Amino acid sequence: MSAEGCPQLGSSCAEDPPEQRLYSEAALRCIAELRERALGESAHWPLGLRNEFLLRFLRARDFNIEQALKLLSNYHKWRAECPEICADLRPLTVMGLLKAGYHGVLRSRDSTGSRVLIYKIEHWDPKLFTVYEVFRISLITSELIVKEVKTQLNGVKVIFDLCGWRFAHALQISPTVAKRIAAVLVDSFPLKVRGIHMINEPVLFDSVFVLIKPFLSEKIKERIHMHGSNYQHSLCKHFPAQILPPEYGGHGPAYEELCQEWTEFVLQSEKDLLELSLVT
């Protein structure tokens, strides 16, 4: 059954409170079946099995119950196995990196409806911030945007600006870390990864990519694009120029402005993030 066969009315979680959003009969049947299958596997689901929560996993797997159940199980397993990343998602734990300008989220979606995220490696000082803090920022953003119905349906695309990548960065990416990164991309988080775009990638980055690549699915590998240092023309083939920051060949808001906006939003979301932190 496709996601189109189980529509949910309303365009985003922010626009319609949960109690006002309506589900089709087909969607409710899928949710009920997933819940029954989940309870058959375990009575302990720390984040609960609410309709809107289960719907994330169903949408991420196009309403395939078996695959959605596997994703639900993997998500909880990943959280339990990675306390250094998941145990404390309070904004305070990543504020240094956010204020340094490491991460921003574009205001507008791309032409396919995907959310677009940017990470600037040159603003990650490996002497000050560990790879776990870097990873935690990605998890925090993912947990916030996965609440959006449009994002559940249309997924996410990521731009990694690798300018400034150094040997000190590479040293923090162990095989264990590489496997955990790949797990989130492939089968441990209810977001569809529609594209991964690397720009300014140095030769030194190859050794890290070699570590991660074996853990990636063929589908994800096909969605990785290497743009090099002359990236502005090729990047605009994948993203409308009007949504990209001027630094990346676009006409949208400046990257620094986007970073400030997202940092403020993360701070405003502290209550939700604290609730996720307390769940084990």
TrEMBL record:
GO MF: lipid transfer activity; phosphatidylinositol bisphosphate binding; vitamin E binding
Domain of life, source organism: Eukaryota
GO cellular component: late endosome; membrane
Domain CRAL-TRIO, chain residue ranges per copy: 90-256
One biological process term in Gene Ontology: vitamin E metabolic process
Protein's name in the database: CRAL-TRIO domain-containing protein
Lineage: Eukaryota, Metazoa, Chordata, Craniata, Vertebrata
